[in-house]
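Hello Y.,

Per our agreement to keep a running log of every chain we model this quarter, I'm adding this entry. I've kept the format consistent with earlier entries: sequence first, then predicted structure.
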Amino acid sequence: MSDTPNAKKPASNEKPNYKNFKPTDQLIFDNPTPEELKKREGNAKRRAKSRATPEQRKEQVKKIANKIIDDIDRPLTGTGGKANFPNAQLKTLEDDDSKRDVIAKVLNNCITFYQMGFKPVENDEELCERLVDFFNKCAETKQLVTVEKMCLAIGYPVQTVVTWDNGTNQGFSPITSLIIKKAKDIIASQDAELVADGKINNIAYIFRAKNYYGMSDKQELEVTDNRDLLGDKRSVAEIEKRLKGATIIEID
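Predicted structure for the entry above:
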């Protein structure tokens, strides 16, 4: 092992002292190459430069304090508002007593239909009866009809009802899908009338229409050409008969 300048090599029975360890001292123990020595010294210098000075640390603390003050003074809504995003808007609902009353009312409505669905329907007849009870209950209590509450009322998750609707799961019988489609048509009609009267947000309606009512921004057209353009459907005898009187042209 080659000696390193300005570094004291510990005795065999002496443990190295790491208290005032320098970047070059570690080279005693791993015997680096000159290139590795130069690289380590450069890294040590870069680390020393990256350390913030007391003035820089004060400036960093000042910036953090100013940001906290700005966040406190920011409005809830509008330009730079703290509650512009949906998750923040939900949190502000609990700060308003009138909105807290709305939360309680909505939750009680959901609990009512959750209890209605304690015993899930077991056939198409029960499904129709439960849907009628569901729509009548919404009309009596003057609350909006939603697909989510409808699923609570019949006792099945939304994902399961979606499979009934799109036909990937037959349900109780082949007409289960038709029953669900007609129920969703009632809900879609309600939402369409409310958005036309300006009672619900257009964006919210578009979101629900795409997810529950099959609305799409594009129309897909399937074009099928049954003509035999390449002659793939012709038999070998027909092709031989067609080429029997053909003239062969040789090209050099």
